[in-house]
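Hi R.,

Here's the chain you asked about this morning:
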Amino acid sequence: MSRYSKNQRARKWLEGLLAHADIRLDGDRPFDIRVHDERLFDRVTAAGTLGAGEAYMEGWWDCEALDRMFARAISAGLENKVSRNLTTLALALRHTLFNMQSRRRAPMVARRHYDFGNELFEAMLGPNMNYSCAWWSGLGDVKKRKAGDRSAREGSAAPDPSASPDSLPACYPQQPGTRLEEAQNAKMELICQKLQLAPGMTVLDIGCGWGSLARYMARQYGCHVTGISISRNQIEWARRRELEPGGPVAPGRITWILGDYRELRGEFDRIVSVGMFEHVGRKNYRRFFRTARGLLKPRGLFLLHTIGSISQRAGCDPWISRYIFPNGQLPTLDSIVRACQGLFVLEDCHNLGADYDPTLMAWRERFDEGLRAGAFDLTDAEARMFRYYLLTCAAAFRCRDIELWQIMLSPGGVAGGYEAVR
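And the predicted structure, written out as tokens:
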């Protein structure tokens, strides 16, 4: 029996809002919302997307296909209509007035998310613990199907820009979890080719995570890699992996540092940063690029791999900021370009945003398998939190509301021009 809501106007308002995306309350389609507690309506009215996410964690509502529902909602612009509340305003003001990614605050994301438990991430990400967008477009069969789709569209009418992308595009694997390692290896190889790595080069990996890319560069290209992360769990896991009998990397090829990138000293042939810039914050962008420029040799290359926003936002979604990535902030392309001025030449920008959708769906597939198998322990609210995070983010990438860029930078410009790799 649903709990009673004193404010029936809130229910009518939400029903009217959802109708713009053809989503129904207590409907029977996979993307319709099933309400278990009618306090949901007041909560969404008062706290917007934060209230919706918290109510889902607490079991107040369900949806069989969260990714499809949110793809419809985002395409219809509903997020903007529910974000006009004091909670969202307070978050925007904090990001505008304060440096939410200062050295003191930086470790918060490690404590909240990356230190959640290696057992969970091992089940979700796979044996290499690669926690960034895979490159499905680099797989031969996916590349062929995408080329076929392009040929079929030639000469046809342009697609309706208002159409909601309900499900994963047909060119991607229907069960992406079974191909995840293959697509992640394709991504790491793409990065190495873009960096033009050669044996003996020194490489700095800023925000190295559990060290999958560092191990790949050391093993496949014979580079000497320095990986830095603010997460103790990540660095300790990476060190243990390197010390395993018959480990994947020759001794001495990798140096692991637990610390903040702003404390680094030295000089490197190449720098790479994958999935870390989202935690830097707009007030620190210039400092980040100045630091990178000071660490890179004059003829070096720097690859920045980051999620980005197509619109100017003060911070991440309030629910994501509170429960997943504290104080995160997605950059825009123009904010990156401004922060690089006088420090780097932008040689190339490659948008891989569409590839993040199947990556997140693969993580959700493996997360559910690990949870059922008892590979890690979570409360019901924590399990719902992770599922909500993965599926809402998949929807955002599916709608192209957010993007994933690989940006190539050089200190003074590559003589004759940089040869882009695709």
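The longest helix spans residues 39-57.

Let me know if you need anything else.
M.
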